[in-house]
Design brief:
The chain is an alpha/beta fold. Helices cover 32% and strands 15% of the residues. It is elongated, with a radius of gyration of 22 Å.
Length: 311
Amino acid sequence: MRQKKILLIGFEKKEINQMIDIFGKKYFLLTIKSYEKATAIISKTRKIFEKSILNKIDSNFDWIHIPGAGIEKYLHLKKFKKIEFTCSKKIQGEQVSDHAMALLLSISRKLTYISRYGQSVKFDFRPLELNKKRALVIGYGGIGKLIAIKSHAFGMKVQVVTNRSIPKNKFIEKIFKYEYFDQSLKNIDIIFIACPLTKKTKDLFNDDMFNKLKNKTILINVSRGKIINTHALIKAINKQKILAAGLDVLDPDTENYNKKILKMKNIIVTPHIAGISDNFNSRNFILIKNNIMRYLNKKKLINKINFAREY
């Protein structure tokens, strides 16, 4: 049986030294050229997915940790049946939910509108109170759950859409399965998108879904741009189905439409920064250390990827 060897890619020197101090130097490889000797790879960059490595990993590896939470770009890896894949999901909830609320507050209190058009600008709509607004959170993982909690703290009436069985609690009024998604849209004031991008959620918000919304809904997306059909969003904004939107992501394949969105009033776009925070690296490092301990001791890994579910 081969000795377990973990190839570390993209780590700072102090992180490497800390892992060596905890587990011992014999378990780690530090240069990408040594991948043929490794049984596992933990990467903080996407270099691991170069074809030169992929051609070798089927027989060599039993664990690979990929960077980030979303796996839509890595679904081709499901062909490696003998390898356990993990990612960094479930540790971004705090900062991404904060960002979702920041986008909402920037809209509801007209903060971005004022900063963009000046202190004496005439409002196109008065600042909004969040208390008693009806909020729908789509996706109830680590991010969606914290968005629901924070929305409830602002006095909003919260509903969620999820494919998991979850108990009702004090901060959720209604729970919908995805097959009843269109029913969840009735009379909603604010929509938060926090679900992963999958075959089922791609273009989830299309012309048909936007037409089911009440007029002047606020839309917040802190997940993936392709969940929203960009052309349909522009039409929904022009028809005032969408009053305003806060988008941390845009569909990279709709560049011309994206340029139109960036010029629209009451549309806030941030450059996919919701997952960045002062504490993320430390949480990510703790996750990786825990999984190294589990890997070396043949225990179940944390944050295993389920390719069938696409997250």
